[in-house]
Write a structure and sequence with these properties.
2 domains; 15 helices; single chain; 40% helix; 399 residues; globular; TIM Barrel; alpha/beta; four-stranded parallel β-sheet; four-stranded mixed β-sheet
Length: 399
Amino acid sequence: MQQAKSISTILADETLPTGLQTIAQKVAQGERITPEEGILLFDEAPIGYLGGLANHIREKKHGDKTYFNRNFHVEPTNICLYTCTFCSYSRLIKKRDEGWEYTHDDIMDIIKKYDDEPVTEVHIVGGVLPQYDVAFYETLFRSIKNHRPELHIKGLTPVEYHYIFKKEKISYEEGMKRMQDAGLDSMPGGGAEIFHPEIRDQIAGGKCSGEQWLRIHEIWHELGNRSNATMLYGHIESALHRVDHLEKLRQLQDKTGGFQTFIPLKFRNENNEMSHVPESTTLEDLRNYAISRIYLDNFDHIKAYWPMIGRTTAQLSLAFGVNDIDGTIDDTTKIYSMAGAEEQNPAMNTQDLVTLIRRVGRQPIERNTLYEIITDYTDHVFDDDKLFKGYLSLPVVNK
């Protein structure tokens, strides 16, 4: 693979097409690129060029700091009313014997398993079913806070909120305020898929629209809270659809400033209705990370979700604009492993994550959900400080 170039090398390259020269100059000067230029990057930019520009922005914002947190997931159910063609995780109601439906007590039992663990976040998302309504989640969030007040609840996507608020016959505004009052701390970025209706109607028809997804996040931001954003890429969308998605996120971020991080999510094609669609290559994954970093100039963080892309690609992504690789996970999510993701049993402990980051010359920083630093592991020495599990095999980079 072509190595990322320094921005000075890129700026001095007189062989670059005029359009790419203009984009490089904008990035060097901290200026925003246009949607047309975003499409040009997808269509024509060499991978080394993209890595150079994205890494310049990444290091300008964060230096070598690379963030992770200690978290675990709770997925109340994988039974769902919706039938998204890309989804390998959900099961229809008529096939509910193939899935699970946790009760309030079941979920609290999972929460309590981590009472003696130094986790800082519980991530709650799942399928959409009538019994998981507003009252259910209000009770659940309050129970979690009563049991462990300091545990950050990052919970539910606009897909879930849209359904339960409509069922309750309340507005988005009232619904999100009730979630906040019950103890919700932040929102994850799921359910965004692709905003453009041309694609969304084909892969996620029936659930909330792109506009409704954005509106629910906007209301959450207006209440003074933070959230994340995602994009499902690498299926039937084009560069135009990706850039349209990024542009809508950039515009809302200009308005509210409430997004913390953007997470590109790679489409995986096992066990779903889109299994005939080839998956994106690692090169395309890195291209997408880099362009996301270049385009979303008003987002502080770009995250690579390591259970989906694997640990080696996550390491490579740190040279293509990424500065966050999510958290320990602890084998508590099935959403991507059921779709054929690289990680079938996704779990890394703190030492694993620190080692992974160090091996590519970056600075490991444990954060909480709001990116407040908990521990800087740059010079930390573990009791048994060695490479773990053999797969952290990239050569050490001395920067």
